[in-house]
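U., I forgot to send this yesterday:
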Amino acid sequence: MLKLNNIVDKGSIKKPKRVGRGIGSGKGKTSGAGHKGQKSRSGVSIKGFEGGQMPLHRRLPKRGFKNPFRREFSIVNFADIDKAIVNKKINPTKEISQNELIKAGLIRKKNLGVKLLANGKLTQKITIKVNKASKQAKEQLSKINGILILEDKKEKDSAIKQEPKKKEK
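Result:
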């Protein structure tokens, strides 16, 4: 009987291969893996292994480095702040700090600094406290008589590794 819950296009549901279920199935005995060797064993092959040939990741030259003193910033745009003000998640009359931005859900990580970018428009005058701001963000804030407080997070920043002290002889 045809019902709405059992209408199916032909070929939309593919039956899984039942391997290792006898010669007649065509996928019996070795289940399509061939005889012996690394690829016939469970776990298949080693990623990046090219049969003893020098693998691609070792043929290519090394490039770049990881800077241990790199500082990461959570990015906040004017559009996000304006949306939060409209949705009454942020009070524009009070100073907007990192904690306020976390409560409003605009940033997640507390240990990172905050960088203000000028993506979007601000409709209200605000006072905001961040670690960094783009040139355009500073200009736009000054146009609407907003106040930008830049705080240096270097002293508090636990993400920056200090150089080990040299031992005196």
